[in-house]
Design a protein that fits this description.
Structural class: mainly alpha
Distance between the termini: 30 Å
Largest sheet: none
Shape: globular
Strand content: under 5%
Number of domains: 1
Length: about 150
């Protein structure tokens, strides 16, 4: 039996993106963290959106958008999840993502996943691309506020 080389490579890439995103969270002051307009502008909204979507991709359950009591796009700045809450949530979502990839595994990468019939590989790559997009966005907010950024792996 061969080892799941593609699944492991995907897990490695997700891990690197999660590492960079996790490193960005504590760099902001509370005031910086809460800046930005709805729906997804600013560090807190960007990070929360990235993680909510990462959870959504692993579960295909729209209920995740209520994970913080109400949809992110309806929250006022003071209602946004704290840095500590999103750091803990990131750890949970990282584990869920790795479990998702393990469930699909190399064997299932060419099998339909979800309602639209896309392959497991297409779904996982889309989720990775989305996470990387918003991780880069979080890094841009770090630059905007003159904070050092973690190095990409």
């Amino acid at each position: 039996m061969s080892s799941p080389i593609l699944a492991q490579a995907l897990k490695d890439q997700f891990g690197e993106a999660f590492d960079v995103l996790a490193g960005s969270i504590p760099t902001f002051t509370e005031a910086e963290w809460q800046t930005g307009r709805s729906p997804f502008d600013g560090p807190a909204r960007c990070v929360a959106h990235a993680l909510l979507c990462a959870e959504y991709y692993t579960r295909s359950d729209r209920a995740v958008f209520m994970s913080f009591g109400k949809p992110l796009w309806q929250m006022e700045a003071q209602e946004l999840p704290t840095q500590a809450r999103l750091s803990a949530y990131l750890d949970d979502i990282r584990a869920m993502t790795m479990d998702w990839i393990d469930r699909v595994d190399d064997v299932g990468l060419d099998q339909p996943w979800g309602e639209d019939g896309r392959s497991g590989l297409a779904c996982i790559i889309y989720a990775l691309r989305h996470l990387q997009h918003h991780t880069g966005e979080a890094c841009a907010y770090q630059k905007q506020f003159n904070h050092p950024q973690d190095q990409w792996g």
